[in-house]
Amino acid sequence: MDTARVAARAADSPDAVVLVLPLALIAAAVLVLVYLRRRGAHPSYRTVPDRWDGRPTAPPAEAQAQAAGPPADELDSRARDLLVRLDDAVFRRREQLDFADALSGEEAVGPHRAAVADAAAEAGEALRLRLRLDDPAARRNETERRRLLNDIIDRCTAALRRLESVAGSLAAARGLPADAGEALRAARARAAELPARLDRVAERLRSLAEAYAEPALAPVRDHPAVARERWRAAGGRLDAAERALAAGDLTAAADAVLDAEAALGEAAILADGAERWARSLQRADLALAEAIRVTEGDVAAAPHLPALREDLARAVQALADARLDTGAGRRDPFAGLRRLADGGTRLAQALESGRDRESRNRRARTLLDEALLTAGSELSAVRDYVTTHRSEVGSPARTRLAEAAHRLERALSVAPHDAAAALPFAWHADALAREAHVLALRDAGAAA
After folding, report:
1. Which of 125, 151, 173 is the last residue of a domain?
2. The domain containing residue 76 runs over which residues?
3. Share of the chain above pLDDT 90, in %
4. 382 and 283 in a common domain
5. What is the arithmetic mean of pLDDT over 309-330?
């Protein structure tokens, strides 16, 4: 039958509509079923999967690439290993730069500082990527996880190649191995200066222990003893260099000198860190006294309103606890500053509306200065520990250390424009640094 005629008649006849319309719908349904069966007859044309198990799936091309690539667990292990190797290499090149500068001058080593700085920035970014990858709150499918792991691996591999090139260039700038004898004499002179300095550092810490609580000195308590171990190890390698020189093996002598320099560098880092911590404690004493005074003013000025009852109670309790941290023989100014930040900041912020702009800015700046002092001191102490125990510390501590450094940089960059906005970055940096310290101590088998 001519469908055009049927259509024309349907337009003129009501009865035809009643008869033809159902038949047309049935015919259309049959055609759709036939079409779908034909498309479903071949897997490549299937419109929907037979079953979905709720897991994210990769596009076909990515799924094939995943199947052809290494297992995800292998990528994960390789990424962790490369992160530690790169972080260690950055520390090592910085030490070599310092020794090369002392022997050959800035003109010889200056061109290599930028390369080491670039590699350090790459290491920091890769460590922060790893931290985000390990964040349990960020659920990632297999495709995204592999992509991030490959990104970390690529970054680390490229940066390690650059640092290897720097190592060769620095050795050439110092005339090694040909000038191994001169490098040995310089290292001997540096080693000879350390024992007296370590004695002074140990005496300083013993003096501080009479005034401060044990936790206040815990980050640097073992520094003199560990530094002396590094000094003795350096002496052993210098003796090995002497023997190699006597045998005419310049390459072995140069390698031994470089090992000794690394040990001497770590000993110096520990001595510097202990002295810096002692100075920071004194600054924290002054900061805590000021923080107590200002928080007492906030408590006195706070109106007894229901909305402020909880904040006021927290501030009063924080004050009581912080005063205990100022007692003779039990001082712990950083603990006191953290208590007041946790218990008094909310009250200070709640009182802002009743202050003029200058007063608000001054209070925000005071709070920020306390946070920057605390976070900066903690971060430096953790960095010293990781640097001098790097053969034992794994990637989890390093990722948190890198993120802490990034947060502190953010706080410092925001601070000139908005002290209140910088405050959370500073305290987050402090929390991450403390977490990194606990993880590093655990890796090294030390008591937290």
Report:
1. 173
2. 62-173
3. 70
4. yes
5. 93
Q: Are 94 and 146 contained in the same domain?
A: yes
pTM of the model: 0.82
* Residues 201, 145 within the same domain: no
Count structural domains, the chain.
Answer: 3
Q: Are residues 319 and 413 in the same domain?
A: yes
Domain boundary among 173, 201, 221: 173
User: Per the domain annotation, does 153 fall within a domain?
Assistant: yes
Residues 336 and 436 in one domain: yes
SS (H, E, C) the chain: CCHHHHHHHHHHCHHHHHHHHHHHHHHHHHHHHHHHHHHHCCHHHCCCCCCCCCCCCCCHHHHHHHHHCCCHHHHHHHHHHHHHHHHHHHHHHHHHHHHHHHHHCHHHHHHHHHHHHHHHHHHHHHHHHHHHHHCCCCCCCHHHHHHHHHHHHHHHHHHHHHHHHHHHHHHHHCCCCCCHHHHHHHHHHHHHHHHHHHHHHHHHHHHHHCCECHHHHHHHCCHHHHHHHHHHHHHHHHHHHHHHHHCCCHHHHHHHHHHHHHHHHHHHHHHHHHHHHHHHHHHHHHHHHHHHHHHHHHHHHCCCCHHHHHHHHHHHHHHHHHHHCCCCCCECHHHHHHHHHHHHHHHHHHCHHHCCHHHHHHHHHHHHHHHHHHHHHHHHHHHHHHHHCCCCCCHHHHHHHHHHHHHHHHHHHHCCCCHHHHHHHHHHHHHHHHHHHHHHHHHHCCCC
Query: What was the pLDDT predicted at 137?
Result: 81
